[in-house]
Specification:
The protein is mainly alpha-helical. It has two helices and two strands. It has a domain of 45 residues. The protein is globular and about 45 Å long.
């Protein structure tokens, strides 16, 4: 996964994700493909997905740096 911001790209490997969350990711992909075929909007849109990624990146950075990280720092 790569997060693109005005400052550049952030990519952190997470090899454990497929094993633990594989079924959830598969369901999300199947839902997205069904939406494409049926011409409807996905349950979670791009803005929601971006917000979730920003929260995860802020939490990861906060843990690594030992300080609160505001979402505004990522934009």
């Amino acid at each position: 996964m790569v997060l693109l911001t005005r400052e550049g790209a952030l990519s952190e490997p997470a090899p454990y994700i497929q094993g633990r969350f594989g079924p959830a990711y598969r369901a999300q992909i199947e839902h997205f493909v069904a939406c494409l075929h049926e011409g409807r909007q996905p349950a979670v849109g791009g803005a929601d997905a971006l917000a979730a990624i920003e929260i995860g990146v802020a939490a990861t950075r906060s843990a690594a740096e030992g300080r609160p990280v505001a979402l505004d720092e990522l934009r």
